[in-house]
Alpha/beta hydrolase family protein (Azospirillum argentinense), 406 residues
Amino acid sequence: MTTLFHDALHEDFGTWPIAYIPYGGAEFGEIKAVAEAIGDGDDGAYYDAWTAAGDRLAHEADIALAKGHKATARALYLRASAFHNASFHPLYGAPVDPRLIAAFRKGTAALDKGLSLGPRPAIPLAIPFGGMAMPGRFIPAEGFETRVRPLIVFTNGYDGTITDMYFASAVAASRRGYHSLLFDGPGQGAMLYEHNVPLRPDWETVIAAVVDFAETLPLVDAERIALSGWSLGGHLAPRAASGEPRIAALIADPGTWSIADGFRDVVVHKLGVAPEEAADLGALDQGVIDRMDAFIRSHRQLNWKVVQRGFWVHGVADLRSYLASAERFTMRGRAHLIACPTLIAQAEGDALSAGAGAFFDALVGPKTLMRFTAAEGADGHCEMGNRSLLNLRVLDWLDDRFEVGG
């Protein structure tokens, strides 16, 4: 398969903005130019190339705005936000890299400048939560900016941001006539980067606070609030819906039963550990932990996922603590509590989709399993090669549940 970026981790992250092209997040030529500027460079070169492109776009936006071209300025600020947002993921880890903070702040500022120039400015929100405030954005439905409409609450996963969710889902939802509420929960975006608040398994507590806030917004139809999660959000959203009855429809992309089970399969089938000994990964023999740790650290992409991202997001310092934390993220004993109509997405070739069918079978309420294939260009994690197809089908499904004309 043809790749744009020389390094596999850079390819993973650098191609995200391709999914955002239909929604104003990038153009292919710009992404290709960034990849060429990086060449064989390291994570610093990756950061520098994306940052330079983001700075250029923001500067062009400033000039357009000064000349009174608000539509152009809006488009360029939004594109700049996507480019700054693409720059820092390889730098993940604790202690936080100051370049990550700088890029995140630039991207957030560009996003907010762009959103402020819309027909109804989308201003930053502060959602009360446990003595803190979770940052959020309310994105109004196009053509219905002052009318009561159904709301989709979008929740990210391990490493997505409000900017990612805006381009991946909220623009499509707005065009279809849905208001959207985007937010950073514990372990996500600003809550992690700026405040070092780790991820937590009881996402129903998080979403209860978000829905409490949403119900105060005058444009929200409180009887038609959907919850949609992508990546690890495909676990967090169902977990939330299992304990928050105000959710009227649920989308999980992909449906993810747990964090720990994938590691458990490796321990049993690759390392030869007896299933009963792998029942609690946090209690594994130290020799097994050491073998896992060495293997993970020897593999660049696995090291990023577990050591750089996983340890930081979970607020732990070693593999045993991470696995013990991962065991708490499970739908075991909770799937039957989901009463609202539920859509489980499953993409061909996505390892995190492997258990989506079993998750679907465990649901007892109204449910739909929606598959995406390589033949459609929609295989892989979160259908990023054809995100617009996912959005079309999911919004059709939601239109039918909420009786919205589309």
